[in-house]
Each structure stands twice: as structure tokens, then as C-alpha cells.
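Problem 3 from the worked examples.
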Amino acid sequence: MIPAREFDGKRVALFGLGGSGMATAQALIAGGASVLAWDDNPESVAKANAAGIATGDLRAADWASYSAFVLSPGVPLTHPKPHWSVDLARAAGVEIIGDIELFARERAAHAPKAPFIAITGTNGKSTTTALTAHILASAGRDTQMGGNIGRAVMTLDPLRDDRFYVVECSSYQIDLSPSINPTAGILLNLTPDHLDRHGTMQHYAAIKERLVAGSDVAIVGVDDSYCAQIADRLERAGKEVVRISKRLPLTDGLFADGTDLMEARDGRYERIGFLEGIGSLRGQHNAQNALAAVAACLKVGLDLGEIQAGLESFPGLAHRMEQVGRKGRILFVNDSKATNADAAAPALSSFPRIYWIAGGLPKEGGIEPLRSFFPRIAKAYLIGEAAPAFAATLGEAVPFEISGTLAAAVEHAAQDASEDGAEAVVLLSPACASFDQFRNFEVRGEAFRQAVAAIPGMEPIRGDRR
């Protein structure tokens, strides 16, 4: 745990008692703060009481006595309208912050030299965070990873100048972190997302920009217009900027040339790494993730040999293009995290011949946005509520069957792929939510793993998933 010592002896109000909220309350108490916490869910309040956290309805609190109000990131700050607790804090002139802000203040006060890499973006945050932490740890650095992935940030090991912190940040967390100041800040990309909570794309982009604006070096993907403009704006303001691109040869920055990772500087080009043969980093989207991780690791002192070794040993993230088994020429890939068409596109773009398992609880727009990938699909196996609508979209463009269940889809896809005679992949990338048949995408992905493991002659892929 990182005790929040900057609030020692002060009174702090806190709203939101989920996992990160509980951890934040405990960090504040460990640092000497007097905390009053609340939640709209009575069960969460009872759980906090059982953990020794003082609770009370903040509607009746003496707001003038509080030094800060700590808000959980899942609670609306601005849109569609501020939560009632936000209105009360603002009326009393109490600053509103989140757990990432507590971390930033503790680091500034007690371990300002601790390398801090913060990652945000609409897509790829979790893979880039996990990859960066893996490279650092595999190079022997004392590495802590958390934030919007894995552990809540205040549950990480105590701050030390020789300890490396890799933190994934959502837009909600950044919005509550006015003094965030990473050693290396990464902004991967921006596409419309969470606009119900941010109102407009411009506001969403402005929040994301804060992370790199406060960093020592801003690492910015420039393959979309929003991020390209942010990179230009930061550079004009005197910020050190490293541009990255998964597809554009840059004149200055890092870019991907096929599976080669290239650096352009002063009109000269140098290969600084490669992704050839690294199955866990297949696809253009992962080239962008790798480039960002490379740039950040260079900033905090790693050499190219250490970085390449980390790239090659990266196992990938569970349920995100996770290679789970191989039988002869057939690779089995779990991409259960792909809960809409946009999320399924990277996997479909990464393999030339696919036996595609898709379906579940449908999202708006269906799979029509994936039509450009239909020529790659040897056959589709449709499951769940979306099956009839997906069948109508596929029409005569792609052979398909309505398998109904995931277990049947895996069995039939494996049989058909084995008769193909070519290198192929059996891919679960549902382009749907899981809730019609599974509790969440993790349970769905685990069911796929188990179905694959039950196939006779299957060779499981563990650890280094190349």
C-alpha cells in the first residue's frame, strides 16, 4: 500500500466504495487522514464499515471542514450531470480529486525520482501497460503495475526512487488528476468513446491531453487527427514530444515498417526492434502498442537489447488475441474481450484465413463495419442472440452456420479447419457482449479455453505465446 501521507491530520470526504474506493479510503487512513466515506449502494457501505472505514451520508456532512473530496472514477463528474456529491463539494469550494491524483502527490513529495509511466488512449491501453511493465520487469527493474488495470494504484508497493510505476489511466481518472506528472506519458489514439460521460469529443480529447501535457516526455500516436494536433500543440508549447505511428514513415519519431520498429531522427533511419515471430504482438494495432512501450522504456533508461528481450517474451493479455493452443496447422485464439465490431477488427485484420466464432448479445451496428474483413473468413460460427442478425449480414459473402453454443462452435470450427489443408486460425472474437450466455467476457474466454483444451491432440500455449 502507498499511504496517502499528504493528507495526514486532514479531513477527507470520499464517495464510491467499490474496489478502488475501498483501497483509496484505506490508503488515506494509513496516511493519517480522517475519512468519511459513502456510497449509493447500502451493501458497499456495510462492507466499508466492516473494514473499519467510517461512513456517513455526505448529504449531512459539514463540507466546510473537508480538505478534499475523493471521487471514484465511475461516478459522473460532469456528464450527463454531476453526481449529487459533486454538487455539494463544489458548492463548498472543496477540491475534487481521484486516486491517481493521490499517487501523483505522494510521488512528488516522497519519491520524485521514481520512474512513472502513465498510459492512456481509447484503444490499446491495457496491452501497452502490460507490455511496458513486462519489459521493465524482465530487465530486472523493480516494477509495479496498476491503475485502470489490475491493482488499484494506491495498493501498489510503497514509493521509492528506484521503483518503476506503470499506470493505466482512464479518461475518468485523468479528469480527477490535475497534477498528474509522469516521467513518460503515453497517448495512444483517440476515437469517440465515453461521450455520455464527457459530453463532446473535444472535451474527451482535452481530458486525455492533460496526461501528456503534464509529463516530462509526451509519447503520442499520430495516426488520428486529434492526437496529431495534440502532438503539434505540445511541441509548440516547448514539450518534448515523441511521435509514434503504426503506418506512417515519420521524419522524426518511431514508426512501424511491417514488423520492424524504426526510429527516424535528423533524416536518418535505424531499426531499433522487431516484432517478427512474436505472436502475442501480431497486427498493426500491436505495433503501435509496442512502439509506445519502446519509447517509454528508452526514456526511463533501458537499452535496446533489454527492450527487445522483453518484447520477445511478452505473453500477451488474457482474452485479447490470446493464443491458447495449436493443433498442427491450426492456431486457436481467444479474443473474448472484443465486445463490439470495432474491438473485433484488430484480430480479424491480423490473420489471413479465419474460422470465426462470433455472436452473443448484439451491440448497435452489428458486424456491418467488419465487411472489409469478410474475404479473410473461411467460415463463421454464430452463437447467442446475435446469430440470426449476423447471418443476415454475412448473407452469401461468407459461409456460416448457426452453432448456438460456444462449445458447439469450437468443435465444428476445429473440425472444419483441420480439413482445410492450409494454415488457419480458429478465432473467438465475438463482436458482442457476453451477457446472453456468460456472466462476462472473462467467463466466455475461459469457456473457449476449456473447449479448446478438450480437443484431442491439442498443444496448449503457455507463457511465451509465440
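Problem 4, a separate protein:
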Amino acid sequence: MLPDQFTPKKEDHFTFGLWTVGNRGRDPFGDAVRPPITPVHVVKKLSELGAYGVNLHDNDLVPFGASATEQEKIVREFKVALKDNDMKVPMATVNLFYHPIFRDGAFTSNDPKVRAFAIQKTLRAIDLGIDLGANIFVLWGGREGVEADVSKCALEALKWYREGINYLTGYVKDQKLDLKFALEAKPNEPRGDIYLATTGHMLAFIQTLDHPEIVGVNPEVAHEQMSGLNFYHGIAQAIDAGKLFHIDLNDQKPGRYDQDLRFGSESIKPMFHLVRLLEESKYQGMRHFDAHAYRSEDEEGVWNFALGCMRTYNVLKFKAAQFAADEEIQALKREIASEYGKDEYQLHKYSSGNATKLKNASFDVDALAGRGAGYERLDQMLTELLLGIRGGISSAKQSEHASAASR
């Protein structure tokens, strides 16, 4: 089959974690269903599929407890694979959740020795990431939480969390490393409750740090949608704050455990709005997929999963260009905007004169309250566009808009 316009390319900046395509299908009720896939093989296969790079936790590449000699050999072979396959490592992270030492948290453990070990492990993971070329370091506090609130003081835990991040940013500043941190939120699982549960929590927390200028967020679709939140809104807030340093793309049925489903496999309309936002806001980061194949799949299914994530993003990017170029849709949007009129009270800026004018203004409340918005028709147009039954515009013009959106 010949490549089409949705076939992934290096310039799309798609990345996967070693832990994503390397997921063996183990869950709390069943053992692994797929054999391990080596990091070198992952790099080769993802490159063949059109991915730009691969990301990793420290222990995805170097086993926990490996000697310095063993690590040097593993990293050397991995670098050769990256070079041979024209692949990058844009992001690195650290595993502070798997080993039993982190059973009650890493940066927020009641035990100061555990907190010290967590920071030491992270410093070494930062060095590994820098060695591989990463300029983003993600921190997901998977064990930073509780099952029983009586077990620790939340204020103390937040203080310890802050101290940990401040220590790490201090190291990066002191060593003059070209690295930024991206904090990843999640409401629960594997802990009953995880501190800093949403992207909004993280954005507020960042402002209390010593070096907030090098700390942003890494929101994940599933982590927001599993608790019923609107991921598109959260990303808009992160972009507005200038803090979207990285993003984890997958999919999720609301109210379920963290499913890490193939991107766009469940939430077509929400993911359309997300992709449109990323493209129209000129987001410069990687399009990273933190998901994994169904447990029912063999290795071939894993690569079908990876390709599906990237193709769906490109399809939705194309649909976003169709939306922007659909003359009927855009005419309706202009009509709706004109119905509301201009901001005659200059609400964008306070002044004493503007405030006096506003206080003395007279509003026809009943007329304003009785006016329809036209959103039903607009949303149905979008639905039909996504379902492929709108006539739309020519393929050439769609491609022109898609190309403009990517610049």
C-alpha cells in the first residue's frame, strides 16, 4: 500500500516511551502476555513507522541496581541504535514508583532517608537524560499520596514535595544544564489519593517553587479524563500560563482505571478540539504517546497500535484544517459573533472612566436572556465533518490549510 497524507513522518515530532510499546500486557489480575522488546528493537521499529524519537524512565533502559560498567555498555549500545535509526530522546524521566522502597511515596515519604534516595536517584536520571540529549525531564508523582489521611500531614507532604523539586531545579541551575521540568498530575492510582491531582493543582504549585521559570506541566489525557475533567480545557489553561512543556497523548473512558488507550480510540470530538488547539496555538513540543496496546495483542499488534496513534493525530490535524477552511462553518461562527456585537464597554482593560460608563449602562436583561446562541447547528456541523459526510473543500485546499497550520 502506498503512503498517504496521514502516514507519520519525522517532522511530525511523534514520540513514544520505551515503557509504552514495551508494555507486556501485565495487569493486577494477569501476568504478561508478550515477551520483552529490547530498547534497541523499539528504536528501530518506531523509526521505521515514522516516529521522531523515544523517551524513557531511567530503569526502562538501565535496570535498577546495575553497575556503572553495565550502565556504560547499555547506554553506548542505545546511542548507536539512536544514531543508526535517526532517532532522538527529547524527554527523560525517573521511576519513583515501582521499587518497594517507594511504597509510601518518594519525595513525600515520611522517611527522610527514602526522600534522600529519591532525590539521589532523580539526579542520576537527570544525568542520564542529559547524556542522551533530553531537554525535558518529566516528574510523575505516582506514589506521592496516601490511602489514609491520618498517615501524614498534607501540609508537611507538600513542603517535602516542594523541597524535592527545589533541590532538583537547584542542581540544574548550578550545573548550567539545558533542561526544563514538566510535572505530571493524576488524581489517584496507584495511590488512593495522589497529591497535586490535576494540571490546575500543578500550575498553582509551580508558582511556589524557587525556580518556576524552568518548571511547567506534562498533562496526560487519561489522567484528567478518568476523573471526568475536560482535558482540552486543562491544556488551554497550561498554554495560557506558558507552561505546556510536554504532553502525554492517549485515550480514556471516564470513570475507569487508567486505561492508556490508543490515541483517539474513544474520544474523537474531545481529541479533535485538543489537536486543533495544539496546532493553532503553534505548540512547539513533542507529540508524545503515553499509551499501550490492548492486552489481547501480540508484537505485531503493538506496532499496529503505535502506527494508529500517529495516524489518528494526523487525521485529526487534517480535520482541524477542514474545519478552519469550511466556508459554511466559518460563516456561521462569524454570524454568531456578530449577533453578540462588539465590546463597547472595553472590558479588556479597567479604567475609572470605563467603570463609570459600565455602572451607568442600561441592559435589556429579558432580551439578552431570551436570545438563542446557534450552538446546536454549529456542533452538528462539526459532528458531520468528523463523520466524513460534509462536502467540505477540495483536497488541495485542505492540504494547503493543513500545511499552513503546521508552520
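Solution to problem 4. Residues 382 and 400 are 20 Å apart (CA to CA). The chain has a mean pLDDT of 95.
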